[in-house]
Structures
1.
Amino acid sequence: MKRVLSLLVFVLFLNGCDDGDLIQEDINFEDVIAQKCPTNSIIYKLKDSEALIFEATGITFPTETTSQEFTISDSNRVLYRFYNGLVSNLTICESIPPATPIVTDQWTATGGQIVINTTAVKTTNVTDNRTTITGYNHNITFKNITFNKGNGTQVYETFAFGDYLTAATPLPFAFNKTLEQCSASKQLYDYNSSEALILDVDSALIVNEATPLNAPRTGLISETKNKLTYRLFSGLVTGAYFCNATFPATPVVTEEWIGVPGVANTNGIVEVTTTVFGNGFKHTVVLKKVKMKKGNSDFILGDNYIYGELLTTK
C-alpha cells in the first residue's frame, strides 16, 4: 500500500513539473537603458544574448505630462528574444538583419495593457532659477501581460519595461524686450518671427507718472487682469496679428502656454517701474517668479524675467 501511494505522489510530481504554466522564469532588464531604432517605432533593451522588444507602431509619445493606456496588439507588440550570440542594435533595427546572431527562442505577448506615464525633464539655471524643459520621460509598464513561451505561458501582473527618453526643443524666447501696446485694449506684446509673449496688463500698472525709487507698481498674474500668454507659431508672425477683436487664424499656433495665477508676495508678480524718458515715459515691466503652464506641463521664467520696456508720450 505504501509503495502504491509513493508511486502516485511521484507521478503527480512529474505531471506538475511538465506544465509549462508553472515554470516561472525571470525577465530582468532593470539596469538596461531603453533605445529606439532611428527609422521605425521599435523601442528595445539589449543584454548579452537577450532582447526585450516593444514595437510601438500605434503609439505617439506626447510632449506634455500625461498618462496613456493601450492594449497589446499586432500594432503594439511585445517580444522577448534569445539569440545564440551577442545581440546589438543592428540585429534589431536593420531592415535586413545580419545573419548572426540567430534567434533561438522567442516569447510573444498575447495580451495585456501598456501604461505610459509621461513627465517633463527640466533643467534649472542656478543663477535665476529659470527652468527649461529639455525632454520628456516616458515610463512604460505592462499590466497583466501574458507571454506565450511555446511550451506554456507566463503572466506578470505588473512588468516594468522602464524609462524611454525623448528630447524636446527648448522654446526660443528670443525677444528684443521692446514692448508695444494696443491703443484700444492696452494689451502689451513682444514678438519675433515665430513667437509672441502677450500681457493683458492691468491699466493701473501703466501710468504716465514716475514711480518712487524702489517702489514699482505691482500686480498679480491672473486669468483676467495681467493674463500672460506665450505663443509659438508655425509660420511668420507680424505686427498685423495683434490688436484685433479676435486673433487671426494664421499663422497657426503650435504651442500656447498660460501664466499661472500669482500669490501675493510669493510668485506670479508683475512689477512696473516708470521713469521720465525724453518727452515721455519709459515703463520697465518685470515678471517675478512667474510659472507658465500648458496642460499638465509647466516651467518657470525665473526670479526676475525682464519682459521689456514700453515707451509712452505725455
2.
Amino acid sequence: MNRNFGRLLAVETMKARRAPVFAICTAIIVLAPALLAAAAILALRANSSSSFAAKARLLVHGTEWAGYVGTGAEVMAVAVLLCLGFGFAWCFGREFTEDTVVGLFCLPMGRGAIALAKCTVLLVWSVLVSIASTLVLLGVGLALGDLGSQPPRWWLPLGVCLLTACNTVPLAWLATVTRGYLGAVGGLIGLVVATQLVTAFGGGGWFPWAVPGLWAGFGGAGIQVGGIQFVLPVVVALISVGATTKRWRGRELGNA
C-alpha cells in the first residue's frame, strides 16, 4: 500500500510539473508580492503624484520593514487564494473535463487514495511556494535598502500564505462535486465576494477566508485576529481533504 501510494504521489507530481497552470501560478505567487510591495515603497520614496502612488499611500503603512512586509503580505493574501485556488480546481477538475477519470478506475489503488495523493501534492506545492514567496519578498527588501534597523516580521507573509493555502482546499471538493474546474472557479469567485461582504459587515474575524487578509492588515479594516481564529483555515483544510477523499472513494464507474 505504501509503495502504491508513493507511485501515486510520483504520478501526481509529474502532472503538476508538466502543467502550465502550475508554472504560471507559482511565478505569480513568488514574484508579484515582492514586486508590487517594492514598487509601492519606491513610489512613496519618490513622493510621486501618480495614481499608483496615491493608491500606495492608502495601502502602505510606513516606508520601513513593517510597511514593506505588510504590503507584501496583503498582496499574498489575494494572489495565493486566486492562484492556489486555480491549482486545486484544475488538478481535480481536469480529470472530469478531459475524461481521464474513467482511466483511474483501472488502477490497483483505491480512488480515495488517488484523491489523497492529489491533496498531498497540492499541499506540498503550497508550502514550497509560500516559503519561496517569503524569501523573495525579504530578498527584494534587502535590495531596496533603507528600510530601517528593525528586523522584518518574516513570519507574517509566511503565515498569511500558509493560512490562505488552507482556505483553497475546499475547491478540490467543489471540483469533484461539479465534475469540472469551471464550477470550482465559480466557487472561488464566490468566496472572494463573500469574504468582502462578511468583512464589510464586521464578521471577517470569524470567517476563515478573511482571516489571512485581516492578519496582513488588508484594506485597513482594523479587525484584530489571533488565537483560535488562526485555527479556522486549518480546520477548513482538514475537513475538505476528508470530504474530498470520501467523495472520490464513493464514486462508481457509472457516475464518474
3.
Amino acid sequence: MNYKMIVLDIDDTLLTDQHVISQRTKEALLKAQDMGVKVVLASGRPTFAMHKIAEELLLHDYGSYVLSFNGGIITDYQTKNNVYECTLTKEQAHELYEISKKHNVFVHTYVENDIITEQGNQYTDIEGQLTGMQIKEVSSFTEHVQNDVVKLLMLEDPEKLAQVEKILQKELEGKISVMRSKPFFLELTNSEVDKGKSLNHLIQILGIRQDEVIAVGDGYNDLPMIKFAGLGVAMGNAPEEIKQQADYVTATNNEDGVAEVVEKFILSNK
C-alpha cells in the first residue's frame, strides 16, 4: 500500500520521555515528506504549543497541517490559516466550569496564548511545562472567559478523574466530547470534535482516501484516529485496550516506535 499521509500524536508518541524527537525519527519523517507523504501532527495541545515541533519537522516547507485541541482546529501550516474550527460556546464553558466545582476537580482553558485557571495546581503546571504556555491565575473563571473556547481541561489525581470521566460521559453524551489524553487530563470539547472526525475533514480537503492514511498514537484520545485510519498504529507504551484496537503495535516512544512505522510502511515502498 502506498500511504499518502501519516498522522502523529505528539506526547508519548512522537516525543520521547525527554520531550524530544529522536534523530532516527526525524530523519525518517523528513525522508517521508521528500517522497510526498504528508506528515500531520494531531494533539490535544493548543496550536501555539505545537509550533516548535512543526517547525522542527519543516511542515511549513512541505505544506502540511496540524490538528490541535484534539482536532478542534485544523491549521494549514504553510499559510498558518485555520481551515476548520469547532468550538465550545461561552455558555458551555461556564456550565463545564460549574460541573468541575461540583466534582471538586481543577479546571483550565485557553484564552489566546495563555492557560486560564482560578487555582494553580500541579497538573496545570505540567500542562504549562509541556506546552510552553503562560499560566494566568484569575479571580473569576467565568468573568474571564467571555468568548467561545476550543477546549477545557479538568485535572485531578488519575483515580478520581477516572470516576469523574465515567459520570460525565453519561451526563454529557451527545452534548460534549469527554475523553482523557493523560491519566490526569480530562479533555472536554464540542461533541463533534475528536481526532478521527478532524482527520476525516482533512482528507476530504486534500482528496486523500481513508485507506491511504496511517495514524499513530498512545492515548485514549488517539483511538478515534487509530480506528479511522487505513492503518491504525498503537505505540508500545500505549494501554493494552488501545493496542487491542490497533492494526499494528510498534515500539515505544523511547525506542523509535514512530521511525519503525515510517521505515516499515512508507520508506520500504520507495
